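Illustration 12: XRE family transcriptional regulator.
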Amino acid sequence: MPHATQQADIVTAELDTALKGGPFHVALRAAIAARGLPLQRVQHHLTRYGVRVGVTSLSYWQQGARRPQRPESLRAVRALEEILHLPDESLIRLLAETGDRSSGRRSAFRSYRSLVEASDVSRRLLTELDAPLDDGLHTLGHHERVRIGPVRELAERESQHIVRAHRDGVDRFVAVHHGDPGCAPERMTVHALENCRTGRVRRHHETGLLVVELLFDTRLRAGDTFLFRYGVEDGTAGVSREYVRGFGAAGGQYALQVRFDAGALPVRCHRFTQNSAAAPRSGRQELPVSERHRSVHLVEPRVRSGIVGIGWDWD
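Figure caption equivalent — predicted structure in token form:
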């Protein structure tokens, strides 16, 4: 009996050490060992949380061969914290810190955690607006213009979409705006600028989400193309340091332009890509800031699933 107690103490000590210093896969493996659960039982518990993850994936995660990246996998990590009786966000933090060390960024934790929270809230808000997962539109081109204001805030953004309907009867588009940390969606304003009008709007303060229905006033037939433009006045958060755009599937061209106030120019800018918010950032490329035009841009001729963005340093 003393031997069993000693072994339990060792396992507990290993878990405490792993939760403090990581890496993620070591902490996950130690937590599963501390609970004495085979992976099949862990998988069973996850299904009770409404999350489906294969035993093979769980094995890869605890070996460090793969990292949870998709939204479903990120929900699984949160569920594992409860199933394995771990402190809130203990695994989430370690997973994000692993990405931080690989990418040299310190802001990944917020974006990683917010992806899980915002994706759940976004799904709920889209359900309230009766928006199907497949909106019936294929993006041919998406051009965004972001303006950074005089106190370095995300002042506003404007989006122009060129789409093609792949089914009959499409008459709207539901847009999602995710503000910077500390923003106030209730103080944001939506402007329907071209070939659309504003319908229902939903806001969620905790995650900084604004979801807006843009009505076309026409019903597209399969194969029809359509162009519309809208803008969001923000300016409700603090200092902005990057703008990112996520894509769930491959699509057409994407262009992003960030323009800075004359009195608030960053010292450097760069573009980057990520397979997901949990993955390390890659594809870093410096972008020179034009002092005359005070802007930088990127162009993706054909977007792929994942994230693309522009970041900047103020000093």
